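User: structure tokens for this one?
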Amino acid sequence: VQLQASGGGLVQAGGSLRLSCAASGSTFSINVMGWYRQAPGKQRELVATITNGGSSNYEDSVKGRFTISGDSAKNTVYLQMNSLKPEDTAVYYCNAERDLDKRTFWGQGTQVTVSS
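Assistant:
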């Protein structure tokens, strides 16, 4: 499975960005996709996940501001980020979990920078 993330950039506080992650390869058994982020000097943390049944989960600090969604026909997951804060600044990584063999896959990361 290959994951191609895009959509990061520089935005002012209060602004919005939309991240996309397209999966290719052996995607037929992927059951969960999501986004993680890693800020400088910090550990990678979960941002949001979505199952192939449409159930979503969010880290507390992004609830009400971020929305994860998926397009199964395109094997793509999106993260709509609104009301961005400087503390959202991080490299955002796309993630996929494959039920077939319990393997986890990572995209290359996309930088999100929120200026105050």
